[in-house]
Design brief:
Helix content is 76%, strand content 2%. By secondary structure, it is an all-alpha fold. A two-stranded antiparallel ribbon has the order 1-2.
């Protein structure tokens, strides 16, 4: 373009040059509209990535809170609830492994203080010295008498442990021991009954030994009168960490009622924060995270149990007895863990089946066809008023069924995996029955009325 004639139109060469320059600029930077679209796409992508990042953080918190909720429930219902603990350990009174350990411990306590062999040896020596016809070799029978006496004490102890009175003694001893544990964990007393400073939890065998001594005397074992009062104890488990974990135990106890609800709120936030169109996938992620947390807890329990059995001395607690005791104490924790795992799998499966994956779509299609077949059979009959009412309130009824299932699991005091499965199956069956039974008769009637009106107007 000529500077002296700015209004002069461009010639062909100048126009081609201008077009080339514009194309190069567009190739480098894009046109204004294209640049705006590119910026919008980039912003949308960054926004979507940010929402996925927030969802991932919240899902991780769901897993952490779920694991903490299970542990807090165990602390609240087992470590600090004496009645619940006694209910857990009461069946141990009839466990053969535990009875064998108790029998050996009571028998050792009595025989150690009785020393039948020494008393028998003195008596036989006196007989040999005062009776010329009795050989001195009779003194060698003392160890045999000792062994027979031990066998007799052991059989008597077994009969006492098999009696109905033992259950009451076992419950009383465990209640007193657990009250001591609670006192230590609450910091009420530095040295409570039932738990030592090193975290050894034990029950007193004094009342049981007194009952065995009475039974021995009644069966003619006069040596039992020589047995003094014995304050022997039987170790249930050793956990030095409990003594130093007062603060954590108190924190978990206070949080036991809040953590489950907080877990639900964070899970809902994770689904809400997820990008639109991906919330069902986030819902499935929540279930998977909870299931993974329970798997981690199960692995940790397995490792902790093995380390505990390895560390406890054999002279403190025999290996089979220690295994029986720790497994029984951990039953409530494992029950809750399995229930949450099953619930997590139900959530993950529900999220997957409601998504757009090929397998999920195929399953939903098969379900719709099955419902259609059942509805076709139902349509052959005249719908009743109940079916019409169900069709009118189908949406709210679906929400109600799911809500009732959730409330059942939340307020069930100690749900098991079986409880979760049965609840899910009943809810699914109720939804199927609702879909098959419900009839949208009023809408069909209105549509037919409108059709008749249009036809009459056209005539």
């Amino acid at each position: 373009m000529d500077a002296e004639h700015p209004d002069r139109p461009l010639d062909e060469t100048e126009r081609e040059e201008l077009i080339r320059l514009r194309r190069e600029a567009a190739a480098r930077h894009g046109s204004p509209g294209e640049r705006g679209d590119a910026v919008g796409v980039a912003r949308g992508r960054r926004y979507r990535v940010a929402r996925w990042a927030a969802t991932a953080v919240l899902v991780f918190l769901v897993a952490l809170l779920g694991l903490s909720s299970v542990l807090a429930r165990f602390v609240n219902s087992e470590l600090l609830d004496t009645d619940r603990y006694v209910t857990t350990v009461t069946p141990l009174g009839s466990d053969p492994v535990l009875r064998s350990g108790l029998t050996n411990r009571v028998t050792d306590a009595i025989m150690t203080r009785l020393d039948v062999e020494s008393i028998t040896a003195q008596a036989l020596t006196a007989i040999a010295d005062n009776a010329p016809r009795v050989p001195s070799a009779i003194v060698g029978l003392a160890p045999l008498v000792q062994e027979q006496a031990r066998q007799f004490v052991s059989e008597t102890t077994e009969s006492v442990l098999a009696s109905d009175d033992f259950e009451a003694l076992w419950i009383q001893a465990n209640r007193r021991a657990h009250q001591g544990v609670v006192a230590v964990l609450n910091g009420d007393t530095p040295a409570a009954v039932g738990m030592d400073a090193d975290g050894t939890v034990s029950v007193s065998l004094g009342p049981i030994i007194d009952r065995v001594r009475t039974a021995l005397t009644a069966r003619g074992f006069t040596f039992a009168k020589r047995v003094p009062a014995i304050d022997e104890s039987f170790v249930l488990f050793r956990a030095p960490e409990l003594v130093t974990a007062q603060r954590w135990v108190a924190l978990l106890d206070r949080a036991a009622g809040v953590l489950p609800w907080l877990t639900v709120l964070v899970a809902a936030a994770a689904v809400w924060v997820a990008p639109k169109g991906a919330r069902r996938r986030a819902f499935s992620w929540v279930g998977g995270a909870l299931g993974l947390a329970m798997l981690v807890l199960a692995i940790a329990l397995g490792i902790g149990r093995a380390e505990y059995l390895r560390a406890i001395p054999a002279d403190v607690l025999a290996q089979p007895v220690a295994a029986t005791l720790i497994d029984t104490v951990l039953v409530p924790l494992r029950t809750t863990m399995r229930a949450v795992f099953v619930l997590a799998m139900v959530i993950a499966l529900a999220g997957y089946l409601s998504g757009s994956a090929r397998g999920a779509v195929a399953i939903r299609t098969a379900y719709a066809r099955a419902i259609g077949v059942l509805r076709s059979r139902r349509d052959a009959r005249e719908p009743g008023s109940i079916a019409v009412a169900l069709g009118r309130f189908r949406g709210p009824l679906r929400v109600l069924i799911v809500a009732l299932a959730a409330i059942t699991l939340i307020f069930w005091r100690y749900p098991t995996g079986l409880v979760v499965i049965v609840t899910a199956v009943i809810a699914a069956a109720a939804l199927v029955v609702l879909e098959v039974t419900a009839v949208s008769a009023p809408d069909d009637a209105r549509a037919a009325a409108r059709t008749e009106k249009v036809e009459s107007q056209s005539i």
